[in-house]
Amino acid sequence: MNNEREKGNGSVGQPKPSLVVGPIAVLNVRKKVVENFLSEKYQVHLYCAGEKTPILSRESLKSLKTPEYHIFVTNFEWLRAKHKGQNKPDLRAVFDTVIIDGAHTIKDENTGEYEVLRNLVPRNFILLTGTPVMNRDVDIAAMLSLFRPDSLWEDMHCDRKTNPFHLEDDHPFAVLRATSFAVHRYLDTLPEKDHVKRGEWLERIYDIVLLKQGFGTTMNGVSIGSAIPPVKTTIHHWFRYRRKGGQCDGGHFGRK
């Protein structure tokens, strides 16, 4: 959680607090786990109904003397109730790291959880889930968009008619494979008979946004996760894209 990270332009970012979001039923457990994992200099706060923690906002977090040593643990429902819609406290870019426990619930871009998380824009996202995400590539689209918004196509001046899966791995536009648009437009529209190509294209996504396959559940005779290629590492490693006149940052996510 030590978060004085070097930015793409060489400067060091300001220290920021971190946020853990999970199911309401296990908030106290998550708080205890975080406290046991970190040293005593860290302060872990429950941010939920019944607690005395004030409403989080850009202004309230500025008052923290050592923000990098503060971690807030909350649940989807409370975060959505307090930070959704207009005239709600702005939490955009105020956190260093946001850890999402139960990330399978945000595979749908139309959920309230996704809307709230999309607006956080932390330096790092770490997505965790013990619930298998089914073998549908479209299920990872919402997760990908937390790291690489579809606006990256315009930021990089890439025509959306360009299929990034057809590009060489070292091509600057190859990183666009790991966007929600690329999954919906190019991967999910592959004919069913092209299952080999689908697996190859998925692997090209996982080379950019790394996943850890940690289960072997079988349901209705189908092995959950069997379409996920083996990977060599797990969660978050930030990449930098540099080009003349601009730069774009993105991140990696993992799952249990």
UniProtKB/TrEMBL annotation:
A Pfam family that the UniProt record links to this protein: SNF2-rel_dom
Domain Helicase ATP-binding, residue spans: 22-150
GO MF annotation terms: ATP binding
Highest taxon above the source species: Eukaryota
Keyword entries, A-Z: ATP-binding, Nucleotide-binding
Record's keyword annotation contains Nucleotide-binding: yes
Name of this chain's protein: Helicase ATP-binding domain-containing protein
Source species of the chain: Botrytis paeoniae
